[in-house]
Amino acid sequence: MDFVLLKERITRCQATVGVIGLGYVGLPVACMFADAGFQVIGLDVKQDRVAQINKGQSPIQGKEPGLGELLARVVAEGRLRATTDYADLAQADVISINVQTPVDKEHKPRYVALEAACRSLGAVMKRGALVIVESTIAPGTMDHIVRPILEETSGLKVNEDFYLVACPERVMPGKLLTNLRTMNRVVGGSSPEATELAIAFYRHVVEADLDPADCITAELVKTAENAYRDVQIAFANEVALICEVAGANVWRVRELVNKCPYRDMHMPGAGVGGHCIPKDPWLLAQGARGQIPLRLIPAARAVNDAMPLHVADLVVDALQEAGRSLAEARVVILGYAYLEDSDDTRNTPTRPLLERLWELGVRPLVHDPYVPEYRSIPLEQAIRGADCLVLMVRHQPYLAMDLLQVRDWMRTPVLVDGRNAFPMAAEQGFIYRGVGWPVGKE
Ligand code: SAJ
Predict the structure, then answer these.
(1) Residue 127 Cα, ligand 1 centroid: separation in angstroms?
(2) How much is the pLDDT for 61?
């Protein structure tokens, strides 16, 4: 395997690049390496997505500044082509794998897509290729799953016949291209040569640090950085619950806690959604291989998963004060996406909230300006005649509402605030409940 030749081809952008998985991560990756000057072959199993991309149209909904234009340009220039056929990757020098790695109901990783990608790639991969896994994976996955499958299906041996690297993505919906350029990356190679090749590769698009490591370190960093965030959010949520009964406003408490050096109390809220934070703590936990008792990570997940149910309790409490029975109350949920000004609904906290309210006999109406199935009713029409608004996401159109006008549209002015979006609502005549707000003096 000619390390020098491959490094030369990568450095000069002469390497052929394959990107497996053209979703939220893979598509921006494919576009950015095409834009850097590489010939890129994008592979996805969804024929309609491949067709859309080959027409220069982005299949990604929501606001992704620059992605649509970049995709159209690199496709028009012939630098990016999408395919469903793995045989098209046979000549690829560098292949990046960006497929989803969810966890199941038992919080165990579901590697169906990853294993399928490795098997299909292994069957066609050429000798001397550099394979990079960007998906977030449990510590040990490269060694126990990715490497064995690639070796078995290719007949090649890692570090002798091909290079293997774990380089977990760090992107957020709404900032995909910026994140890929500006966020530091851990480059975890199966050998120092693999790491060196991957750093030369990423140097073409990443302006930030490219930190060399081995595979297991890269797997641990990515899952730990997101488990860190989940634990921090859970701490803020538990302090919010304490504030409600103790009679203080958690937002003032948080402000003053964070004036103390080395504190960074996160934001309490209606729950934790998305494709990263609810999942990655379980991937990290998997790395313990059942050999140590894990208490903090599962507890944090339980605290955060309970927040939408707490919001349901606030709804019940507020309607009781307003004298509206649950059966008759017209409850409107504002926000189905998991994150502000995004259309991404994966693991949205609004779903368990809805399930809980249904159990209680409430039949809420859901509104979300970015999610197709919930944006057909205009906001004013959704609010008119309502007895309770439940703010779950800080979408800009909600923050821009004139609450006095909203109050006049409603039958009963009740506002339950899951994200501290309307701290002045009580002064504006609403029966108000907020996560972390004092429920009322004893
Ligand atoms: N959330 C809170 N309180 C907080 C922060 C977030 O309740 O203090 C909730 C959000 O409402 C949302 C969920 O948690 O429902 C996740 O929010 P997020 O800001 O973490 O956004 P994500 O899911 O897109 O996470 C990504 C991750 N980025 C990468 O994996 C590269 C995460 O590591 C980042 O920290 C996060 O973006 C970010 O910084 O925005």
Answers:
(1) 39
(2) 72
Tell me, in angstroms, the distance from the centre of ligand 1 to residue 1's CA.
41
CATH of domain 3-208: 3.40.50.720
Closest atom of ligand 1 to CA, residue 274? 23
Cβ of residue 274 lying under 6 Å from some atom of ligand 1? yes
Domain boundaries, the chain: 3-208, 297-434
Residue whose CA lies nearest to ligand 1 atom number 3: 267
The yes-or-no answer to whether 3-208 and 297-434 have a common fold is: yes
Nearest CA owner, ligand 1 atom 13: 272
User: Residues 363-375: pLDDT tens digits?
Assistant: 999 999 999 999 9
Q: What is the C-alpha to C-alpha distance for residues 1 and 26, in angstroms, rounded to an integer? A: 27
Confirm or reject: Cβ of 170 under 6 Å from ligand 1. yes
Mean pLDDT of 76-101: 98
Q: What is the mean pLDDT of the chain?
A: 96
Question: Which residues are tagged catalytic?
Answer: 222, 276
Nearest atom in ligand 1 to the alpha carbon of residue 344 is 24
pTM for the complete prediction?
0.94
| 1-57 tens-digit pLDDT | 689 999 999 999 999 999 999 998 999 999 999 999 999 999 999 999 999 999 999
What is the best residue among 277, 398, 419, 435 to mutate for testing ligand 1's pocket, by most ligand atoms within 8 Å of CB? Answer: 277
Is the domain covering 297-434 a CATH 1.10.10.410 domain? no
Residue nearest to atom 4 of ligand 1 (CA): 267
CA of 272 from ligand 1 middle (Å) equals: 8
The pLDDT score that the predictor gives to residue 63 is 78
Residue nearest ligand 1's atom 38 by CA: 172
